[in-house]
Amino acid sequence: MADIHTSAAAVFKPSNALSKVGPSAISRMMAATAELSRQGRDIVGLHVGEPDFDTPENIQEAAIKAMRAGDTHYTALDGSPAIKAAVREKGSVAKFS
């Protein structure tokens, strides 16, 4: 009896078009940051969105408050008006602090 991998390979044969598809941009970014880290570079990878620390308590509480207020849907690609205003405010404060 064939193992599951052999039978899956026999059933699933990728099309020629699929064979021309390369690694995703995210995969390439992950590989590049991993390589730079191996070289001893101090890299902060912002491509996957999975930090190596827990979400700070104040951010957790703000998220819970927003969800309870019904703010549970996707925003425009460039963010909500409130977020953009907060980023502008933070940026102007940081410049002059």
Automatic annotation (TrEMBL):
GO MF terms held by the record: L-aspartate:2-oxoglutarate aminotransferase activity
Cofactor requirement: pyridoxal 5'-phosphate
Keyword vocabulary terms for this entry: Aminotransferase, Pyridoxal phosphate, Transferase
InterPro entries per the UniProt record, alphabetical: AspAT/PAT-like, PyrdxlP-dep_Trfase, PyrdxlP-dep_Trfase_small
Single GO biological process annotation from the record: amino acid metabolic process
EC number(s) given by UniProt: 2.6.1.1
Keyword Kinase (UniProt): no
Family to which this protein belongs: Belongs to the class-I pyridoxal-phosphate-dependent aminotransferase family.
Name this protein carries in UniProt: aspartate transaminase
Source organism: Sulfitobacter delicatus
